[in-house]
Amino acid sequence: MEADFSEMRNELQSRDALWRRIQVECQQLHTELLKIKEYKDMQEIQIKHQSSCRQITEQLENKNAELLLLAQSQEHQREELNKIRNHLYREEQAHRSEQERMKTEISDLTEELHQKEITIATIMEKASLLERQLKMELEIKDKLLAKQQLLDFRYKVIKSENTHLKEMV
Fold this sequence. Notes:
Helices cover about 95% and strands about 0% of the residues. It contains two helices and no strands. It has helices at about 1-45, 50-169. Helix 1 (about 1-45) runs antiparallel to helix 2.
């Protein structure tokens, strides 16, 4: 995209330079036209020949036609320069808008990532707490199981003694 901008700037500078050359040529032609007019006036005063007057008039008309063509060309160049400037401005605006959109998106993603990191940390804390609780419950159950087995063993011993006592009686 930077290359496009650079290319457009170069094109704009090139056309600006052409525009300046055309203006200088117009000034030169205008000066030359003034000189031709002075020359024509002097010729009319000095020489009364009809042919030389026609020749100067033709030259003047040719120069006027050239000036008109240059003025038209100059106007066309000005329009082209304006189009290029407008296009460059729109491209720069689009580029800025895209940059702003990307900054906003990055900011949103960063915030989302931060929130997910907080969520993960919270989950890890809860998991650690649940793990400790589970270990404690397992220890309690292991103790209860041991007591249960001891009680079962005592029950069997007492039952066995009881059976033995019944047989003796």
